[in-house]
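Hi, here's the filled form for the chain we discussed.

Project: internal
Contact: R.S.
Residues: 143
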Amino acid sequence: MNHSLLQKQLDARSDRFGFKTASYLSEGTNALPHDISERLRAARVQAIAKRKIARTEPVLAGSSLSGASVLTLGSGGGMGWFARIGALIPLIALVLGVLAINSIQSDRRAAELAEVDAALLTDDLPPTAFTDPGFVQFLKTGR
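And the returned structure, exactly as it came back:
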């Protein structure tokens, strides 16, 4: 989800909450005496005058600040080719590492199986020993 879309949704929810709160508070103001309602109105005016209005404006990738060139990261029209390559390097290293680990484990497994097969073929065992259920357990614990 886009950050600006999420921010817009949060702002809309905040505005709806403010409007609901204001409507609930406004319902009870008709029954208040005149001096209290005037103090509330003055407090509202002061609160509105002091509120902060935070508006974000897009910044160009190369802005000028008092005659000096300023480079802003991530606020231009996207990432440059160097930044994209820099972002892909860790991903490529991860994939290569996983492939290397897989290859090493496959080689080790093949070597273990070859060792067991060589031991079975060179040993003097009767054919009935291969069907014995305890023989598989012996192979697992014997090595």
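Let me know if anything looks off before we file it.
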